[in-house]
Amino acid sequence: MRFDLTDLSLFRHVVEAGSITHGAGRANLALAAASTRIRLMEESLGAALLTRGRQGVSPTPAGRALLVHAREVLAGVERLREEMAAFSGSAFGQIRVLANTNALTEFLPEALSAFLAGHPGIGVEIEERTSEEIVGLVAEGAADLGILSGTVDTGSLQTFPFREDRFVLVAARDHPLAGRGAIPFVQVLGHDLVGLDRRSAISRFLVAQAAREGRPMRLRVQLRGFDAVCRLVEARVGLAILPESAAARAAQGLALAVVPLADSWARRDLTLCLRDLDGLPPFIRAFVAQLRA
């Protein structure tokens, strides 16, 4: 059995993405090359590592065991790079971050820019996930830290406050709901809506909240960014549910009304979560300090 570091990194990416295609992209490999590597790994081991289906791939028992060791080996290699880099007087490394939509688009760019400017040898890999997914992935070692809604149970993970935000209704200024002081989400569900792409963490979260109310979301248009959503709201295509930070920024230049949601889950203070701050490499602790500053 001979697996090299590229094999192990590819396998980790494939399992975490739930797709050979997406895993190959994350590993910067062509799909054909990635498929061949996975096949040769299975042949070398003499057992299937992945269960293939229409919805993607999932690890077999052998694959889950390999994933644990792959993460340990790759983490060890990363620590080796960090220690050797210390002899050259510079820091090198990679930070893996999982963030929900709001953190990724509204709050991370500024903090990330400031950190990277002072740490030229450090790279940051960021992936968008729902808050519930982030907890499990950070706990099992798939990422160094996560940024998620403070309302989510993080179990035994360490947490630190990050930013304050909440979901609000965004409407054209002359819409009948624009003058409300606060509105329950269920009352919004009777109106046409404009939202983010269905793959975004926010869209998946809001669809789940609508399902709990026993109502569908009448999404007329789905787009890739907050600004595009707000422009269609101003054009009276529909209403939108967005983080207050994004809505307030858009309302400065567009004819929009911002109305608080009355639901308790609408409060979306953001939290940093990680397994053990003291056990992280110095450059990741520095990144966490930058985020908390």
The largest sheet has its strands arranged as 4-3-5-12-6
Kindly provide the name of the CATH class of the largest domain.
Alpha Beta
User: Helix count?
Assistant: 11
What would the principal axes of the Cα set say about the shape? globular
What do the pLDDT scores average to?
Answer: 89
Radius of gyration: 22 Å
How many angstroms separate the termini?
47 Å
Q: Number of folding domains?
A: 3
Instruction: Let me know the CATH homologous superfamily of the largest domain.
Output: Periplasmic binding protein-like II
Q: What is the string of helix and strand elements?
A: HHHEEHEHEHEEEHEHEHEHEEH
Beta-strand percentage?
15-25%
What's the CATH topology label of the largest domain? D-Maltodextrin-Binding Protein, domain 2
CATH architecture of the largest domain: 3-Layer(aba) Sandwich
Number of strands: 12
* Helix amount: 40-55%
The helix/strand class is: alpha/beta
Would you kindly provide a brief summary of this structure?
The protein has 293 residues and is of the alpha/beta class.
Structural descriptors:
single chain; 293 residues; alpha/beta; Arc Repressor Mutant, subunit A; D-Maltodextrin-Binding Protein, domain 2; 3 domains; five-stranded mixed sheet; three-stranded antiparallel sheet; 11 helices; 12 strands; 21% strand; globular
